Amino acid sequence: xxLDPQTSQLIRLALEEDHAFQDVSTLWTIPEAHRAKAxxxxxxxxxxxxxxxxxxxxxxxxxxxxxNVFIEDGxxxxxxxxxxxxxxxxRGILSAERVALNLVGRFSGIATLTxxxxxxxxxxGARICDTRxxxxxxxGWEKIAxxxxxGTNHRxxxxxxxxxxxxxxALAGGxxxxxxxxxxxxxxxxxxxxxxxxxxxxxxxxxxxxxxxxLDNMSFEQLRKAVGMxxxxxxxxASGGVTLETVRAIAETxxxxxxxxxxxxxxxxxxxxxxxxxxxxxxxxxx
Length: 287
Known about the structure:
Blueprint: H1 5-17, H2 24-27, E1 35-42, E2 46-47, H3 51-61, E3 66-69, E4 76-77, E5 84-89, H4 90-120, E6 127-129, H5 139-148, E7 162-164, H6 166-172, H7 175-185, E8 192-196, H8 199-208, E9 212-216, H9 220-230, E10 235-239, H10 247-251, E11 257-259, H11 262-265, E12 272-278
Parallel strand pairs: 6-11, 7-8, 8-9, 9-10, 10-11
Antiparallel strand pairs: 1-5, 1-12, 2-4, 3-5
Helix pairs in contact: 1-3, 3-4, 4-5, 6-7, 7-8, 8-9
């Protein structure tokens, strides 16, 4: 997978932030000619995401390094089964190690957490989706990670879709006024969603006509009533305080989407290690 120039630049900036090209610990202790082989080892079950980023970190630091990733993003990780190898100059491997691990750990963590939510609602028809609660400049890859875990992406940016949140509605003078204002200006026909936190607001939105409705912090009973009221006239998205313990019950109310900010803002980094060893020649000498 080839990376876009912006992503490569972000990885380069991460290496520069770490002063990886001036790694005194490595430069002062490891001979320039020393070669090594490193294996990327997962310590738990999970979902891989960020393999190309892992490889790019090493290649940017030392283009002579050879990186092989054994499985594609979205593939299953098994404990202690290597998923990638890096071969070449030991200095380059050691100096890029932390940035490479940070990247693959971050995005595999998101993919793995997403998979847990997706599995929790299996068979209900509800889809798990993300939000815009993402790391600045890394939103694209965080949303890729959600897809790798089996989730669905919500809007990528503020231009892609109209989402009238509670503050829009309040400042515009109500749900009805805000929706009518959008209808008058939406010449491009972009998707429209409105956030409601009461069944009365939902009724008003449905009477005017809207494609999607975000049901904010509603109880299970309110969600069931909202599904009945809507009767398929709009896509219903449940949001607010969703956890692995509650997501199944939310899905069973009949909503179409469940959006979870925690997928990207609270996913724990996946536990990888990079095991490095010297390369042994046929005659037994370690380089």
